[in-house]
Amino acid sequence: MQMKCQKCGQELDDEMKFCTNCGSPVEKPQPPSANPTDDDVILVTTPSVPNYKIVSFYGAVIGSSIRIAAKRSGLFEAIDALSGNLGGDSFLSNIEEECYVKASKRLMNAARNQNCNAVVGLRYNSLFSDNVLHVTAYGTACVVEKEV
What we know:
Blueprint: E1 3-4, E2 11-12, E3 42-43, E4 52-68, H1 74-85, H2 91-113, E5 118-129, E6 132-146
Parallel strand pairs: 3-5
Antiparallel strand pairs: 1-2, 4-6, 5-6
């Protein structure tokens, strides 16, 4: 992993304790907590995190979820669609929400496995075909620090 000096921007090796250009102490990024929770990884659709600075990028991470919806009759589909259109929760929207949540959690776990605490550029893809719903969440894992 290539790091940069926080003061002058000089590229640094992992083992350096001081910048060879300006002499500033090297601040190593802190990994996420040892006991992660679901909300310790920040997910944003933007290329940056408000009020945080990106310390390092680690690359693409992916999380996905697949759910099979039981085959329903045409009448059930019509009632389900009508329920959704009238402001109620439809059966399919509940399955979709569950898949998006699972894909997001798997994405956060992938980021944690890289010792990252944020994913920027978050995107979702979903495909519903033959009663199978597949949701994929992806983005760029990185380490961020709170700006002071």
